[in-house]
Specification:
It is a single chain. The protein is α/β, with parallel strands linked by helices. The chain starts with a helix and ends in a 5-residue tail after the last helix. The relative contact order is 0.15.
């Protein structure tokens, strides 16, 4: 156990007013968080938190210690940041989480060019489950913008604004001609991700909803979904950002191009601190520059 780890846990509990929520943010168990606080209280020789079955509040000592703990963490972040930025060369390991689709099609080209530019950096790219909120395990979580996500432990910024459109294979359209308007899609089979299967609809750019009532294939593997679409298994609602190869080759073509989803955003979420690490900031800047040409 160390002071910084324990102090960070204490500050997060104080901000969340919950051991459980703090544990979720830290990616550890509630019992592990409790052990950190017990250790901290023993070191200080005083109780910092008043715990009941319903709530967690600060003791008088906790109220005094909280701003000092925040200052300690901010000072440590400052030392780390300034030390790392001495030569303006990012180093260390950058841990990133993204869904398979985003990782494969959006991130990998940028990761390749970033590593070529900054060879002192290593990147660990992990899979983020569709619909999963950002966590504190990673330096960066790249995912769709969550309107409902309100975390005092995170910062975020927009990377890409996009819209989703309908696509199908030429063979599918030969078998299913006469798709001229939205109403003609009734009865057509859709290829869905688990997120849209659960949601059941997509909001269109005019504010209306298109319901996904007919589907027989659900997958969160982008390559599998695109293969299914190319094989004529159904229609796919997707951003053209993912379809560069397929559109160039003509294996997928637009269907009702005037029908688009409401605008969506891809965001980068990262832990909130007084100083964002150089490696994180530089990768975000690199990613923004690379993605600027993909705006739809």
């Amino acid at each position: 156990m160390d002071w910084l780890t324990a102090a960070k846990s204490f500050v997060l509990i104080a901000e969340q007013a919950s051991f459980t929520q703090a544990a979720q943010q830290l990616g550890i168990s509630s019992s592990a968080v409790s052990k950190r606080i017990d250790w901290l209280e023993r070191q200080l020789g005083t109780s910092l938190l008043i715990r009941t079955t319903r709530q967690v509040t600060l003791s008088e000592s906790g109220q005094v210690f909280l701003p000092k703990a925040r200052a300690l963490l901010a000072q440590f972040e400052s030392v780390m940041t300034h030390t790392q930025e001495m030569n303006q060369i990012p180093t260390g390991t950058l841990k990133i989480a993204a869904t398979l689709a985003v990782g494969n099609s959006i991130l990998m080209p940028s990761i390749q060019s970033f590593l070529a530019t900054y060879p002192e950096i290593s990147i660990q790219l992990n899979v983020l489950a569709p619909g999963a909120p950002p966590d504190l395990h990673h330096d960066l979580v790249i995912t769709r913008h969550y309107d409902e996500f309100d975390s005092i432990a995170h910062k975020g910024c927009s990377l890409l604004t996009y819209q989703m459109s309908l696509f199908a294979s030429p063979s599918y359209l030969l078998q299913h001609p006469n798709i001229d308007k939205l109403e003609d899609l009734a009865g057509h089979n859709m290829l869905l991700s688990s997120y849209y299967q659960q949601k059941g609809h997509i909001v269109l750019n005019d504010g209306s909803k298109f319901d996904f009532t007919h589907y027989n294939f659900v997958s969160d593997h982008l390559d599998v979904m695109l293969e299914a679409a190319e094989q004529g298994m159904g229609l796919i609602f997707i951003s053209p950002s993912y379809l560069t190869k397929q559109l160039d080759a003509g294996t997928l073509v637009p269907v009702l191009p005037a029908i688009q989803s409401a605008k969506k955003q891809l965001w980068a979420y990262y832990p909130k601190s007084a100083f964002t690490p150089l490696k994180t900031r530089m990768f975000i800047d690199h990613l923004k520059q690379r993605l600027s040409s993909m705006q739809t």
